[in-house]
Design brief:
Elements (H helix, E strand, L loop, with lengths): L2 E5 L4 H13 L3 E5 L10 H6 L7 E4 L2 E4 L1 H11 L10 H31 L7 H21 L13 H10 L13 H12 L1 H7 L1
Parallel strand pairs: 1-2
Antiparallel strand pairs: 1-3, 3-4
The protein binds glutathione.
Length: 203
Amino acid sequence: MTIKLYGFPMSPNARRALIALEETGESYEYVTVDLMSGGQKAPDYLALNPNGRVPTLVDGDLVLWESHAILEYLAAKHPEKRLGGGSPEELAHVSKYLFLNAAHLGPAMAGVFAHTIRLPEDKRIPTIAENGRAEATRILGLLERALTDKTALVGDRVTIADIAVGTNVALAPMLGFDLAAYPNVSRWLAELKKRPSFVKAFG
Ligand SMILES: N[C@@H](CCC(=O)N[C@@H](CS)C(=O)NCC(=O)O)C(=O)O
């Protein structure tokens, strides 16, 4: 049975699942959940994902939501692609970046996006945007240092850590961050964006 990925083209969370699928070479069907018209809260979709968000992956009997869990599943399903860590230490470092992204960078950038672009002006709370910007700036700084003399966040090849963090960092310029201030991050992101999987997700 063909894998189904439920997502929305502009969603960084759905994009990272799509990129991981592309990297595995799996064939899959992309099902658009229209976030603009509330498709994520439709009963059929909530039956798959009670959290009412994208993405959701359906692979046979497995129904999986939370983008970072989807990344870990796809990496584990395709060990030959070496998208996860190659040793217990690498696995732990990959996991560290997934948590950093899910708990800190993602919510910070989502706060900036919601309170400068997405919400109607009368619903925007400037403090949320400011706090998100400060948090994302701090994390960009730590990524800059982590990527000194390195081509990937963990080891020397692209893993789901780069896919996870890269899909958020790619949105930074749109949110007003100047990535020129982070040359290592810029170099790393430029290489990621050349990969066919990223071209497909952002194209
Ligand atoms: N932690 C979740 C976040 C998912 C998420 O927030 N997705 C957004 C799109 S980027 C969404 O579906 N928003 C719709 C809503 O909040 O109603 C993940 O990584 O999958």
